[in-house]
Design goal:
Bound molecules: 8-demethyl-8-dimethylamino-flavin-adenine-dinucleotide
Largest sheet: 8 strands, mixed
CATH class of the largest domain: Alpha Beta
CATH architecture of the largest domain: 3-Layer(bba) Sandwich
Radius of gyration: 22 Å
Structural class: alpha+beta
CATH superfamily of the largest domain: FAD/NAD(P)-binding domain
Distance between the termini: 50 Å
Number of domains: 2
Mean pLDDT: 95
CATH topology of the largest domain: FAD/NAD(P)-binding domain
Number of strands: 19
Amino acid sequence: MTAASPRVSSGAAQRFPVVVVGAGPAGLTVGNVLRAAGVGCLVLETETREFIERRPRAGVIEEWAVRGLERRGLARSLLERAQRHTECEFRFAGESYRFEYTRLTGRHHFVYPQQCLVTDLVREYADVRGGEIRFGVRDVRLRGLESGRPSVSYLCPGSGERRVVEADFVAGCDGARGVTRAALPAGRVRVACHDYGVGWLALLAEAPPSCDCVVFGMHPRGFAGHMARGPKVTRYYLQCPPGDDPGNWPHERVWAELRERLGAVGAPPLREGRLIERRVLDMHGHIVEPMAFGRLFLAGDAAHLTAPIAAKGLNLALHDAFLLGDGLVAHLTGGDETGLSGYSATCLAQAWDYQEFSQWLGEVYHGTASGDPYRAGAARARLRRLFASPVAAAAFAEQYLGARTTG
Ligand code: RFL
């Protein structure tokens, strides 16, 4: 061993039926499903518990996903505390247009901050169902995925020792910047990417919502969005150049742009507040095909990154996690391989459906400010159709609210 290489733990490798890499919504849901069925499981996470329980991200959760959590005993707090949203508003050319999707479909959205869901899922997994989770791990590596005995190793946060854990299966739930995706050999995987060519300045304001629903502003200066996150915190988005520096967006400029882009006749004034998050997200998406290799199954953002345009990423992560959790339980407790063998194809159908809708909606949001009169005209036509054609409205509502397309 060289001086630079970490010490390998002297004890025998530990063994768990499933090692889950990543404690986001996907990994924690898989872990909870496994623990509920009495299946042994270890979750590895690079961050601390405090960090993941405070990391703000998504907020819009689709009704089928909440019902899926509820069926698995994971939605108690969410159902008590989440807001129900029944309509959204489009603002363009100085006018506002309400889109009442619950009236059309009978279904609604739940609004519940992702960090609250993660907090609930960690508590249930670790404190209630007795699942093991190791925080702060470093340099996670996967081996032997094509063998019947894969292993995952990592560096311990305290000692710097490398620990090896053997498993029957590995769930790669480590998000878009994780390591498990890279374990799929280059010749056996295809990554399909889409770059929207724009950035979004993602903002969290310490201010109550300015409207009783989600608002989308299509403006020649760029898209702007308003989404409640709770009674005292609101998420806003401003389209900006990709790679823009958040430092270019001081408080006054942010609120002036939001007022301009979300302005409409009769619209209530924006309720301004301190900006507690300000980051630029480059809008792009990708899908990894297939989502499984040997004993490794990818779930959530590790397999498919969906730009937050249509608020689909968390929902897709839950979709995968339900199927993967159920498939692993069926295999490990009853030898039934059906769920795992169909896992990748079923998840990919759903992921492509949501990617396509995000692309369609992205053009509605960004066409107006594209500088291309053709794209701007087409975006206006899409918007007009939503309010002129009941069939177009029903189709939009179905996709906006989301549904499991398969399974
Ligand atoms: P996550 O949540 O990224 O969790 C992955 C976890 O893995 C850890 N990790 C590792 N652990 C061990 N070893 C490694 N090598 C590791 N590398 C990373 C990470 O620390 C993390 O804890 O992935 P998951 O579980 O797949 O969940 C996906 C969702 O988080 C994501 O799709 C959504 O947040 C996307 N998204 C939205 N989705 C919605 O459905 N509705 C929304 O309203 C919505 N709004 C958003 C969003 C994403 C946003 N950002 C920041 C990209 C708003 C924003 C601003």
